[in-house]
Amino acid sequence: MMVSQDPNSQSSSPIDGGTRIGHVHLKVADLQRALDFYCGVLGFELTQRYDSQAAFVSAGGYHHHIGLNTWESAGGSPPPAGTTGLYHLAILYPTRAALADALRRVLAAGIQLDGASDHGVSEALYLRDPDENGVELYWDRPHEVWPRTSDGDLAMFTQRLDLASLLRELEP
């Protein structure tokens, strides 16, 4: 499919600011293994399951934030490096303390982080699920404290995230 409209042209209007990504649906090799990670480690709740073929998990009673299925991938392997596909899914936590709890869960499960970054606008943890899908766990700082240039443009950056400082959010 070819898109002919220049995305930088003044005639194109931006999408409604209330638009959100509703859910992500992942192909997995083993449904129970995926549920052990998303529910057992990260703490999502199982909302519906279709035998060993599909499951839907959520936070806070939503119908589903993540769909998991084996319809085309049962027993499969992750795509090889250098191919297209999902880079990562990002799970937004409401507070820094909630992100700290996610870090605690990940570390307790013995899952290795691929990285941990402070982006100025957010703090993020990067890891892989059992099917090697990239997973970002993050929280956004309030918009009022996002870094800006002297012209008011967003000035995101990437610096090392202090994990010890993050875990101190869990101290009473």
List the helices and strands and how they pair.
Blueprint: E1 24-27, H1 31-41, E2 45-50, E3 54-58, E4 66-69, E5 89-93, H2 96-108, E6 115-118, E7 122-128, E8 134-140, E9 159-160, H3 163-167
Parallel strand pairs: 1-4, 5-8
Antiparallel strand pairs: 2-3, 3-4, 6-7, 6-9, 7-8
Instruction: Identify the strand order in the major beta sheet.
Output: 5-8-7-6-9
* CATH architecture name of the largest domain: Roll
Relevant CATH superfamily of the largest domain: 2,3-Dihydroxybiphenyl 1,2-Dioxygenase, domain 1
Instruction: From the 3D structure, determine the CATH topology of the largest domain.
Output: 2,3-Dihydroxybiphenyl 1,2-Dioxygenase, domain 1
- SS strand fraction: 25-35%
CATH class of the largest domain: Alpha Beta
The description of the largest β-sheet is: 5 strands, mixed
The secondary structure category is alpha+beta
Features:
2,3-Dihydroxybiphenyl 1,2-Dioxygenase, domain 1; 2 domains; single chain; alpha+beta; 5-stranded mixed beta sheet; 172 residues; 3 helices; 4-stranded mixed beta sheet
Would you mind describing this structure in some detail?
The chain is an alpha+beta fold. The protein folds into 2 domains: 22-74, 2,3-Dihydroxybiphenyl 1,2-Dioxygenase, domain 1, CATH 3.10.180.10; 87-172, 2,3-Dihydroxybiphenyl 1,2-Dioxygenase, domain 1 (Roll), CATH 3.10.180.10. The protein has 3 helices and 9 strands. The chain has helices spanning 31-41, 96-108, 163-167, and strands at 24-27, 45-50, 54-58, 66-69, 89-93, 115-118, 122-128, 134-140, 159-160. The strands form 2 sheets. It has a 5-stranded mixed β-sheet. The protein has a 4-stranded mixed β-sheet with strand order 1-4-3-2, covered by helices on one side. The longest helix has 13 residues, at 96-108. It is globular and about 55 Å long. The mean pLDDT is 94.
